[in-house]
Amino acid sequence: MAKVGLMIVTLDRSDRLAALAQAESARFVISEICRRVSGILRPSDRYAVPAIDEVWVLLADLPSESLIELAAHTLKDSLSRPIYAAAPGTPAPVPVVQVRPAIGACWSAEQLLPDPVILLTASHDACQRARRADDHIVVRKLDSAEDLINRNALELELRKALHANELEVFLQPQIELQTSRCIGAEALVRWRRADGRLISPSLIAELCEERGMMSQLTQFVLNTSLRHMMAWNSHDVDISVSVNLSAVTLADMNFPALVANALSTWNIEPRRLTLELTESAIVQHERSALEFMRQIRSYGCSLALDDFGTGYSSFAYLRGFPLDELKIDRSFVRNLVTDASDQRIVQALVDLAHTFDMRALAEGVETVETAEMLHDLGCDIGQGYLFSRPMPAERFLDWYRELRSDWAGRDGTAEIVAPV
Ligand code: C2E
Ligand code: MG
Ligand code: MG
Known about the structure:
- By secondary structure, this protein is of the alpha/beta class.
- The protein has two domains: 4-144, Alpha-Beta Plaits, CATH 3.30.70.270; 154-409, EAL domain (TIM Barrel), CATH 3.20.20.
- The protein is 45% helix and 24% strand.
- The strands form three sheets. The protein has an eight-stranded mixed barrel, surrounded by five helices. Strands 2-3-1-6-7 form a five-stranded mixed β-sheet. It has a two-stranded antiparallel ribbon with strand order 4-5.
- Helix 2 runs antiparallel to helix 3 (65-80).
- It is globular and about 70 Å long.
- 36% of the residues are buried.
- The model has no long low-confidence stretch (mean pLDDT 87).
- The structure holds ligand C2E and magnesium ion (2 copies).
- The site of one magnesium ion has 4 residues, from strand 13.
């Protein structure tokens, strides 16, 4: 049966594209993008450019799902090539801009055309996920009516669970690579449903964002983390905790005051709290983000830029926003030991962090060799399964105390700890 698919392409580096929108070369860039898109389409396909950094492609009569995958990869390769233009005074064309496309596509095998609003929403959603995915492409089958009902049911269940405080906060240690000491932990939400199934945290965050429950989720994770920290005080555990914020939180100007209240309720020093933001969240709320971040910083809390390298990776954010920590995405860390280009990227990111007076933290450290190499590259902190998977607060305390008794027996010089 023929299938229909919609691809939504966002062209990261929109900061530069947006700047170009005012310039004469904008028309040239857009027409070059259109030329590349139309170059891969079949006569029955259609495309539109609804914004300077977005392209929609409608693929009709698809004989198979693999064709939409193929189209997405071909389009990504084509759009990723630098765009050149003639510049006055230079004999050869110079690169004007290089975009980093993220492609989300949805397809449907229904005989009837899917509801366009559902197709568009689902493709947008796939595109948002593509921005976080390793290869920047997400292709999925359009949710059937049954899937939508399940999602609605899951939303109701999650609402109830949030209301009844049934979610949990797990903690994953962050290790100072120079000393092998645990200096912090990331708070990660966990939800086990009544049927015992664990729901992925990304899905929880996505549902909360989509269905207006994010403020509740963030407050739950924040307050639970601070409560654990207060309990640790009596065990002389003086580490910081990082809490993830979503894009919608960044637009909520009441949130900084909630943070200040929560810190005083649990009597936790602000320097022990780090809030993690992603570049895409900052991009979505650029106007409010700076004021939001300034307020958080004015209390003495820290700010970390999460998953760095997967989005815009723009210097402008590092220069323009008050950040304390750069979290290098695990896609650059995974093959660090064997991949020379990843080594160069991580070295560059570590140097970049230090240039802007930020700590460099590597995510996804899974082997001793990776931790050692990160240490040699000057990375300050490591987080990953090597040290520990995220764990419940009580287990975290035992883990920490065991590690501390290990430090007591050593002189504090670097020696990467193996998993416990
Ligand atoms: P993140 O903030 O980048 O969190 C790090 C993720 O990497 C966690 O996944 C963690 O379990 C995983 N991870 C840590 N070390 C390793 C490793 O060595 N190898 C591999 N393969 N993975 C590792 P998790 O807990 O599934 O969370 C996924 C994402 O969900 C988080 O990514 C964050 O974006 C979101 N999330 C989790 N908790 C919250 C929350 O409380 N609020 C919000 N807004 N988002 C959350
Ligand atoms: Mg995080
Ligand atoms: Mg991360």
